[in-house]
User: Fold Morphogenic membrane protein MmpB from Streptomyces argenteolus.
Amino acid sequence: MLWSDPENKPPEELRDAQAMLRRAGLLLALAMVVAMFVLGIR
Assistant:
Protein backbone atom coordinates (compact mmCIF):
# COMPACT_ATOMS: atom_id res chain seq x y z
CA MET A 1 0.00 0.00 0.00
CA LEU A 2 1.18 3.48 -0.78
CA TRP A 3 1.13 6.38 1.64
CA SER A 4 -1.00 8.31 -0.85
CA ASP A 5 -3.76 5.68 -0.82
CA PRO A 6 -7.13 6.82 0.49
CA GLU A 7 -8.27 5.48 3.86
CA ASN A 8 -9.13 1.80 3.93
CA LYS A 9 -12.65 1.75 2.47
CA PRO A 10 -13.19 -1.10 0.02
CA PRO A 11 -15.40 -0.32 -3.01
CA GLU A 12 -19.06 -1.27 -2.99
CA GLU A 13 -18.61 -4.28 -5.29
CA LEU A 14 -15.86 -5.68 -3.06
CA ARG A 15 -18.02 -5.30 0.06
CA ASP A 16 -20.92 -7.03 -1.72
CA ALA A 17 -18.64 -9.86 -2.87
CA GLN A 18 -17.25 -10.30 0.64
CA ALA A 19 -20.76 -10.43 2.12
CA MET A 20 -21.82 -12.97 -0.51
CA LEU A 21 -18.74 -15.13 0.16
CA ARG A 22 -19.43 -14.97 3.91
CA ARG A 23 -23.04 -16.10 3.36
CA ALA A 24 -21.90 -18.84 0.96
CA GLY A 25 -19.34 -20.06 3.51
CA LEU A 26 -21.94 -20.17 6.27
CA LEU A 27 -24.34 -22.01 3.99
CA LEU A 28 -21.64 -24.50 3.00
CA ALA A 29 -20.69 -25.13 6.64
CA LEU A 30 -24.34 -25.66 7.56
CA ALA A 31 -24.82 -28.02 4.60
CA MET A 32 -21.77 -30.04 5.67
CA VAL A 33 -23.09 -30.36 9.22
CA VAL A 34 -26.49 -31.48 7.94
CA ALA A 35 -24.85 -33.96 5.54
CA MET A 36 -22.74 -35.46 8.35
CA PHE A 37 -25.83 -35.70 10.53
CA VAL A 38 -27.82 -37.47 7.79
CA LEU A 39 -24.93 -39.83 6.98
CA GLY A 40 -24.47 -40.55 10.68
CA ILE A 41 -28.10 -41.60 11.05
CA ARG A 42 -27.92 -44.18 8.25
Notes: The mean pLDDT is 87. The CA atoms of residues 24 and 30 lie 10 Å apart.
